[in-house]
């Protein structure tokens, strides 16, 4: 699949290196659900812009934080975010003013490390 011009930035770039494992990242708001669709490939980078690899998008979910299915949290790339409380803490750190009724985009992806 063709690489898009979009770049996903990660403050804590902790990923499974198994290219078949589906992982998720949670982003505030609707922006990413409008930009990405399953099958697209995006660059994965640290927040300083250093490219780490690529992510093939395999699913997109737009929902409120309160409606986020607990059953998918084990897929979160960041171990700190694999519980609802942990994810809420990180989202509040990343997005000041975030509340649990805010809308979020969950990106399901398969990661491939840069050679």
Description:
This protein is mainly beta and 115 residues long. It has helices at 31-35, 84-94, and strands at 3-10, 22-28, 41-46, 51-64, 103-113. 14% of the residues lie in helices and 40% in strands. The chain has a 5-stranded mixed β-sheet with strand order 1-3-4-5-2. The protein is globular. The mean pLDDT is 94.
| Contiguous uncertain segments of 5+ residues | none
Strands of the widest sheet, in order across it, are 1-3-4-5-2
- Structural class assignment: mainly beta
**Beta-strand percent range:** 35-45%
SSE ordering:
EEHEEHE
Biggest beta sheet summary: 5 strands, mixed
Number of separate helices: 2
What is the general shape? globular
Count of DSSP E strands?
Answer: 5
The average pLDDT score comes to: 94
Any idea what the radius of gyration is? Answer: 13 Å
The span between the termini is 18 Å
| Helix content range | 10-25%
What's this, in brief?
The chain is mainly β and 115 residues long. Helix content is 14%, strand content 40%.
Search tags:
single chain, mainly beta, five-stranded mixed beta sheet, 2 helices, 5 strands, 40% strand, globular
How does the SSE layout of this entry go?
Layout: E1 3-10, E2 22-28, H1 31-35, E3 41-46, E4 51-64, H2 84-94, E5 103-113
Parallel strand pairs: 1-3
Antiparallel strand pairs: 2-5, 3-4, 4-5
